[in-house]
Amino acid sequence: MLGLRSAESALGRLFAVVEAYPDLKADATIAQLSEELTATENKVSFS
Predict the structure, then answer these.
(1) CA 43, CA 38: separation in Å to the nearest integer?
(2) What is the pLDDT of residues 8-43, one digit of tens each?
(3) Is the dihedral of CA 11, 14, 20, 21 positive or negative?
(4) Cα separation of 9 and 22, whole Å?
(5) CA–CA separation, 19 vs 40, rounded Å?
(6) C-alpha 9: how far from chain center
(7) At what angle do helices 28-46 and 2-20 cross, to 10 degrees?
């Protein structure tokens, strides 16, 4: 459980940085990462 909290914290910081830089937010790689993370979060919440 501690590993999950650590990952959530790191992702929160990553997305805070992305929000601060519009060019980074528009990057296709970041957009794909965001979509994949959302899909993974949904899978975890339904399991």
Answers:
(1) 9
(2) 788 888 888 888 888 877 788 888 888 888 888 888
(3) negative
(4) 21
(5) 21
(6) 10
(7) 150
Say which residue the tokens 């992702």 belong to: 11
- What are all long-range contacts of 28-35, with beta carbons under 8 Å and residues at least 24 apart? none
Ramachandran angles phi, psi of 27, nearest 5°: -65, 135
DSSP letter assigned to residue 24: H
User: CA neighbours within 13 Å on the CB side: how many for 42?
Assistant: 6
- At 13, list the tokens: 């910081």
